[in-house]
Amino acid sequence: MSSISFVSVSKRYGEVDAVKAFDLSCAPGEMLALLGPSGCGKSTTLKMAAGIESVSSGEIYFGERPVSRLTPGARNIAMVFEDYALYPRMTVWENVAFPLKVRGITGQPAAQRIGEVLQLLGLRQMAEQDVSGLSGGAQQRVAIGRALVRDPEVILFDEPLSHLDADQKVQLRAEIKRLQKLRQVTSILVTHDQTEAIAMADRVAVMNHGVLQQVGAPQDLYERPANLFVANFIGEPPMNLMKAAFAEGGRVAGDGWGATLAPSRLGALRASDSAIVAGLRPEHIAVRPAGTAGDAPGTVIYREPRGDADVLTVVLVSPTGEGARLVAEIAGPSSWRAGDKVSVGIDEARLLIFDATSGRNREALP
Ligand code: ADP
Fold first, then answer.
1. At residue 136, what are phi and psi to the nearest 5 degrees?
2. pLDDT class for 365, splitting at 50, 70, 90?
3. What's the pLDDT at 285?
4. Does the Cβ of 44 fall within 6 Å of ligand 1?
5. How confident is the model at residue 38 (pLDDT cuts 50, 70, 90)?
6. pTM for the structure as a whole
7. For a designed S-S bond to 22, which of 9, 140, 228, 349 qualifies (C-beta 3.0 to 4.6 A apart)?
8. In which region does residue 312 sit, left (phi positive, over 0), alpha (psi from -120 to 50) or beta (all else)?
9. DSSP state letters, 44-89
10. What is the CA 99 to chain-centroid distance, rounded?
11. How many angstroms is it from 163 CA to the middle of ligand 1?
12. Which residue lies with its CA nearest to atom 14 of ligand 1?
């Protein structure tokens, strides 16, 4: 078990800066997710850790050991791929045995380790079956067994659940988390799926355009996004982002709404005069009967029932015509329907203020 650190790592493919000055550390035994949209540089980062791609500049360390110039075989890593990458004509046992065999570990010592891993993964009954006949979920469990069997320093997971159907996904992500914690193996998980990252990882690193945007525990990213990109990327439905301006008396106002900010926040929030964007999560908006004092008047234009929740789109009334459009997530099923006049209550303590130009959360640490 060792840490992994990327120190100012960059990767260029010709004209494309796939990863830019990337600084990140994954602690021993930690599961860290690299999360971001397609093309943001997640896989390239993982491949550089694996040694499948070289770094253009910077250094990667496993513990204190620089590994950038080592071949994949010299790094003591295991990889779990999206498409399982098993040997189709071999049995479950033979697939799990393979990494030991190539290292000359056979006989009783190998059998004991393979047996133990198959037991851990609930694959004992299937040991003699060909892997090609197994479900996707079972095949990926075999791939995880193959990764665990030789106690690697680091396991790199590249979109491991992408090919599985929904119930297998839920099962296997719990399973991977359980095994990762049990074995305390330092792991990096690449995914474009925030639910997966949040469910499995201790910390999540959000990337965009090859640049690390923020790293933190899922709750930190959710409550204190460092910038507009993270604010918009984390959370579903996404955070409402509204044009806003400061007004007298510690007020902030937008099209058809206003809120009072706590005096203790004003110093950081009003540090600059440049334009701002206010952010508010859908679950921090209350929808109440029209005329509720202190609320902003509006009209429901769309209701999306989600079983135990309703997602309502409300357009606010503004002196200049149509005001801001807000998405609210409330307990469901509610009785609100499109066309209903309502009052919208803003949870003022949850309102975030971003710099419109830089996108930075004004309360984020520099
Ligand atoms: P992600 O895994 O987040 O989808 P990638 O790391 O695969 O992103 O890609 C990051 C960027 O690098 C993209 O613009 C992609 O087109 C580019 N890229 C990735 N691999 C190569 C390659 N082998 N040659 C040229 N460009 C590449």
1. -55, -45
2. confident
3. 98
4. yes
5. very high
6. 0.93
7. 9
8. beta
9. HHHHHHHTSS--SEEEEEETTEE-TTS-GGGS-EEEE-TT----TT
10. 30
11. 20
12. 39
